[in-house]
TrEMBL record:
It comes from the Bacteria. The keyword Magnesium does not apply. Belongs to the short-chain dehydrogenases/reductases (SDR) family. It holds the Pfam family adh_short. One of its GO terms (molecular function) is oxidoreductase activity. Gene3D superfamilies: NAD(P)-binding Rossmann-like Domain. Keywords: Oxidoreductase. InterPro entries: KR_dom, NAD(P)-bd_dom_sf, Peroxisomal_Beta-Oxidation, Sc_DH/Rdtase_CS, SDR_fam. PANTHER family: DEHYDROGENASES, SHORT CHAIN, SCP2 DOMAIN-CONTAINING PROTEIN. Residues 7-208 form the Ketoreductase domain. It comes from Sphingomonas abaci. This is NAD(P)-dependent dehydrogenase (Short-subunit alcohol dehydrogenase family).
Length: 293
């Protein structure tokens, strides 16, 4: 089934690994693909797509350079008329414990992962609004969602992408722009030194990309965090517990400690529709306790 017939997709960091797998599967489902990367890999992937009967162009450039990003979008429009899908996949690693990590390496990882996604998304946002259609995927990570030793820079950038996704999904809803996150587990150049050979064999990038197709299809969800690896998929959520009203007494700090378990009780946990849900919950609890309204 051609789930994306006629759609135009940009995939950043698609010269190899996960981005390559994404680009090939998008093309197999009928998308016309703009393959972006810094090196020669982009041209090879575009040629692979064309050799298989698909449509693709390669655009070399850095996602951290606004002029190069704009040129990439212009190339997509010149070749295919528009952009329907953006997959923010480009990334790098500069792993070290926080104590040993340089600020420059921290800043560089945030610049590529977070600001690269911001620049690429900004470059297509107006176009998608005008055509009342867009599908955007941010590549997050379990390192951002849950933490991972030696990846404070990477984890910070990846969790920031979740926050970006949450807000853009809200802002884009009225123009049928759906924004989601994909948290992949795959053996790529970035993880080559981190995994033993038997595990690498299971964690092929191609086993993640089917989840991407769901996130960019016509009937895609929005504000979803899809995790996947080795052919297994999960959903991750940012949740809010029901909490406990502490009040403003002299012993409020002691009460937070005392009622910590009640505050964290997940029995009435929710997935807020927007940030306002937190203040609404807090005001309702406070007003009830003080007999206001």
């Amino acid at each position: 089934m051609m789930l994306l017939d006629g759609r135009v997709a940009i995939v950043t960091g698609a010269g190899g690994g996960l981005g390559r797998a994404h680009a090939l599967l998008l093309a197999r489902h009928g998308a016309r693909v703009v393959v972006n990367d810094l090196g020669d890999g982009a041209a090879r992937v575009a040629e692979d797509i064309r050799a298989a009967g698909g449509e693709a162009i390669a655009v070399t450039g850095s996602v951290t350079d606004a002029k190069q990003v704009d040129a990439m979008v212009d190339a997509a429009r010149d070749a295919f008329g528009t952009v329907h899908i953006l997959v923010n996949n480009a990334g790098i690693l500069r792993d070290a414990s926080f104590a040993k990590m340089s600020v420059d390496d921290f800043r560089l990882v945030v610049e590529v992962h977070l600001m690269g996604a911001v620049l690429c998304t900004k470059a297509v946002w107006g176009l998608m609004r005008d055509q009342n259609y867009g599908r955007i995927v941010m590549t997050t990570s379990s390192s951002g969602l849950f933490g991972n030793f030696g990846q404070s820079n990477y984890g910070a950038a990846k969790m920031a992408l979740v926050g970006l996704m949450q807000t853009l999904a809200i802002e884009g809803a009225k123009n049928n722009i759906r924004v989601n996150c994909l948290a992949p587990t795959a053996a790529t150049a970035m993880t080559d030194s981190l995994l033993p050979p038997p595990m690498k064999a299971l964690l092929q990038p191609e086993h993640v990309s089917p989840g991407l197709i769901t996130l960019v299809s016509k009937d895609a969800p929005t504000r979803a965090i899809l995790a996947g690896g080795a052919g297994h998929f999960e959903r991750a959520y940012v949740t809010l517990t029901g909490g406990a009203y502490i009040g403003d007494g002299e012993d409020a700090a002691e009460q937070v400690v005392k009622r910590w378990d009640a505050i964290g009780d997940r029995g009435v946990e929710t997935v807020p529709a927007a940030g306002g849900a937190q203040i609404q919950q807090e005001l309702i609890a406070a007003a009830k306790a003080k007999n206001i309204g």
